[in-house]
What does this fold into?
Amino acid sequence: MKLKKFPVELIAIPMYFATIEIERRWMKKHAEERGLRGYNKADAKTSLAMGSASVVVKFAMAPLQARVMRAAFDRRVVSHRSKVVEVAIAMVGWDLIYYWWHRANHRSRIAWAVHSQHHSSEYYNLTTALRQGSPEHSGLLFFPLLGFIGVSPWANGVSGGLNLIYQYWIHTEAIDRMPKWFERVFNTPSHHRAHHGVNPQYIDNNYGGILISWDRLFGTFEPEQERVVYGLTKNLNTYDLKVAIGGEFQAIARDVRGWRGLRAKLGAVFMPPEWMPKSESSALASASME
It folds into this structure.
């Protein structure tokens, strides 16, 4: 494989394992005294297994991704003489598209079925960053769009890899706050802890990748204040890999089978995760009152 085609984020794998071990040892000494969640061995193993699976899928999808990006680039409406300008456009453009793609993943249940795998841990440490949804490739519909504005497949891939690497370090409780100017512009551990929270005020906020500016601009920013409770609104209560990957898909299938009417069945797949038809919400309300 040519180095130019090598996924840049895979180069960071040794750094991932080194920093995970450093964080784990630090947490062992300080987590209890500081009231942090720290590490759970079974949870960390599940996260690392999911990360390994996502790497396999990434390699399998790479040829298709390259063809789609090349097709868009071949139809570009502008070209860039400077590689610096091209990469700068790629980085900012990738981050903006990531914001909207990430937001969409939280607001459509079929997309959430994949993305929720990343949110399924009740712990928050560097292994959580690697807890990726294996079939999470709906981005193929969005990120190649950069090719139309002169971003080559190489620059597109590099910007995507760097975006992913950046988001690794923000999955930690070991860092409290960054300097105020940094917190104002960039995504940080504090901002992303809130994103992983199931506290009502944190749900569906702080979607940014590298820049938190998009959230401030589009009205989805929420600062970390109350201690964050991590996980899902309905936690898995298991470290079984099959459940972590397929649990939400099974829930969708159950609702499609159980809910009556075409609108309800389509809603079970495409509407936001909390949506349910009026008949079901009424029945649920009646049951809770009994």
Remarks:
- The chain has twelve helices and no strands.
- Residues 3-218 form one domain.
